[in-house]
Task: structure prediction
Amino acid sequence: MEIDIKKIAVLASLEISEEEERAFSETFSEIVDMVSELPELSDAEPYVDRMELRDDTIESCGISRSGLMDNAPQSVNGYFAVPRTVEQ
Amino acid sequence: MKLYGYSAYELLDMLSSGKCSSAEIVRDVMERAKETQPLYNSYITFNDEGADDAAKADAVSEKRGSKLRLCGIPVAVKDNISTKGIRTTCASRMLESYVPPYDATAVANLRAEGAVIIGKTNMDEFAMGSASDTGYFGAVRNPVNTAYSAGGSSGGSAAAVASGAAVLALGSDTGGSIRQPAALCGVVGFCPSYGAVSRYGLIAFASSLDRIGSIGRNARDVYLLHNIINVADVKDVTSSYKKISFNLKGSLRGLKIGVPGELFSPQISDDVRAAVEAAVMTMESRGAVVKYVSLPSAEDAVKAYYIISSAEASSNLARYDGVRFGYRTDNYSDLSEMYRKSRTEGFGDEVKRRIMLGTFVLSEGFCDSYYKRAAALRTKLCREFDEVFGSCDIIAAPVYPKAGISLGGSISPVECYSADICTVPASLAGLPAISVPCGRNADGLPIGLQLIGKRFGDAEVLDAAYGYELARGDVYDRA
Result:
């Protein structure tokens, strides 16, 4: 099967350089071949483990806003900073 | 003997009788951890406040008039489990400087019982790997023989416990990541039932498979640690309210052990097969009843596992975009380029492979033939396990096909993935499973016996492991 590595990389928001592409394609094809040999099981329903959902409730967690922002690569006045996405 | 060599249960007795203090235990273990770090590379970050935490645990114990259940016991925590104020990297450049603002529930449970976090252990990047060699901070070496890997992905936790650089450790197990390194390092590793330990604060790889579990030098120590983290938690919607409270008895009389032929496939090396078969015979000699059973879908479980785990990983790891936390590239001109470059520079090759595989199997036109088939196989496998447990109490199997993984050897991803054959069936079915040392091969490399129980049969699994240790006689519980 022909696999479009470039397209998958775009979907996954990753870059694969020209040099990497050949090596990556080869191992990727081997992996896809391996997992392709799964039997078709028409009678088995997907495994569902029922979860008890709870209400979202607001509670104090003791985490400060600045404690959260400290992990941001860039912040301005307590906000996450990203490149401009809207034209002026 | 230095204190780092003792088991947790021995240290707790010594503490109670005043033969040592928490501060002395933590000092000895921290010294040992720092001394062995250049040899094994078990840790990524040490907790510099360990000594203060020991003093605090002592003070709380004194105030309440009795010792906290893990008072002063040094515990290593895998670096994908959040620790408030202590860097948590997932062994990735992506999270190289990430400091969680909160504790994982399992870590909070440990701290509340006086355990001292000694440091954060090395691992495969985002827990994706089998030799703890895909991480950004270098490979973990096996304390038994440094030419070999400590296994993975919780290699740092297993190596730390094996070498006395920690008394106990938390690991995480998605497809065998606690059991396999425990087997390769000659320690005990327990992957509890899915839902028995909260995943809150465990940095997600594959959410329907990820579990936090316990590593120690013997079943008693692992039992001690498991009992503290086996707590229901509303912050993990998949966590269960079944609290498993029990005492270890270690009786094997009448225990029905199922031995599935599919997990003793030709892929299993002769030395591993012989050691595991001998362990089953030892259990039989103590009154266990052995039965040969079949799990036909186990042979395809690895394929289903890599489809499901990679699919979930591709979704879970979409959050790393260089905006709120984690690595951000220096070179970008717009938002999408910032995402792409941050992810490309921040993730290592194995993580990229899994993200791409997951993206592929979920992509338009392929989902039915991959993801849905894998999900159906998972259901079938669960039913087969149910059938086996209709007539057996426990399943015995190897943990890993080989006794050792040479460091620096080149094997293809497919060979590496295929070797997970013995551990992924219990992962897909959410079953509790333990790895207990059951001997060594001719080169002195440890081999593990895997015991798998029914869902929430965690007590039976720990008890059978303890029973096997008693039957085996020689207790390997000293570092």
Summary: Chain A has a mean pLDDT of 85.
